[in-house]
Amino acid sequence: DKAGHKHFMSKEIAEQPTVIGEAVRHYLAQDGTSIELPDTDLDFTKIERLTMVACGTAFYACLTAKYWFEQLAGIPVEVDIASEFRYREPPITKGTVALFVSQSGETADTLAALRYCEGKADKILSVVNVAESSIARESDVAFPILAGTEIGVASTKAFTCQLTVLLMLALKAANDRGALDADAIADALSKLRGLPSVLNTAMEAEQGLADASRKLAEARDILFLGRGLMYPLALEGALKLKEISYIHAEAYASGELKHGPIALIDKHVPVVVMAPKDGLFDKSISNMQEVMARGGKVLLITDKEGAVEASEGAWETVVLPQVDPILAPILYALPAQLLAYHTAIAKGTDVDQPRNLAKSVTVE
Ligand code: F6R
């Protein structure tokens, strides 16, 4: 049932404020100001290294969470693609906790990577949507993301719910390890509780994104740029676009631009720049200006402050609500998804069943 939507993907994009709200509530303690995890003997103070493994969009959720676990909780994090991890057979050192992220919980490579860690890692954790899946069953602790059934092949609400749960785990780890005090946690949680309404407001940017998408639909190649927490979001935006619109899209960390990809820039290659007004904004904008100076057409996705400072000369600017930089990845997933969706609509491709792709990849 598409609930009045033309596609499951648009229904699932629209559901995000609701399901994210549910995920937040699930991990909130009764008092509403602290985090409560399922009953487990998991001890964040004992973790020396966190190894996160996944495929595709779930891998980008891990890349995002790396910033959170490192910056908020001070835990060294390593992130890997499951198909690489499983055959490289990396040494798992004492104090390592392994965390697997999967919507379906059945992805063959992720499951094999998990099995490789059995008996080697101190603990095996998973962040899954399907609670009765193989990955959930074979973990010591499975954290549900509560996104509800995801039917569209391109993952949307599962990604933002993965991010939500991973952020709450990072906040809990930060608190337990003494890196953030109770007040800081309560403050972060109150912002997380407010996120559904921020996302609803952000939906107002849909028309602007749809207009920009009609222009993107004419491109053969598109670049996505982001720094810090926006780098994995740029990767996700490029993946989503490739999957459903079949336009070649690549993402780079903005700082990598001059190490190669800037050679691609001309007026035929639109560049999507994701840059909220955070601590890295000036650096991202200076990379964006390098693109514009070479005739590149920039679609800038930012907030009000960012738009005032930097939208001059941009081809298009999409303005999102202002949020705490820590929460920005969850918010900026929305324009990444909507751009892909509307570009696919403009091209007339099959949004829910893109060619050559399967919802659950149970063979390697
Ligand atoms: C992208 C997408 C895929 C999956 C990947 C992992 O939109 O859906 O990249 O994210 O196949 O799947 P799960 O999360 O089920 O392990």
Automatic annotation (TrEMBL):
GO terms for biological process: amino sugar biosynthetic process; carbohydrate metabolic process; fructose 6-phosphate metabolic process; protein N-linked glycosylation; UDP-N-acetylglucosamine metabolic process. It is found in: Cytoplasm. Keywords: Aminotransferase, Cytoplasm, Glutamine amidotransferase, Repeat, Transferase. GO terms for cellular component: cytosol. It is an enzyme of class 2 (transferase). Its EC number is 2.6.1.16. Residues 40-179, 212-354 form the SIS domain. The keyword Cytoplasm applies. The active site is at 359 (for fru-6p isomerization activity). GO terms for molecular function: carbohydrate derivative binding; glutamine-fructose-6-phosphate transaminase (isomerizing) activity. The keyword Manganese does not apply. Its main location: cytoplasm. It catalyses: D-fructose 6-phosphate + L-glutamine = D-glucosamine 6-phosphate + L-glutamate. Catalyzes the first step in hexosamine metabolism, converting fructose-6P into glucosamine-6P using glutamine as a nitrogen source. Homodimer. This is Glutamine--fructose-6-phosphate aminotransferase [isomerizing]. It comes from Cognatishimia activa. The gene is nodM.
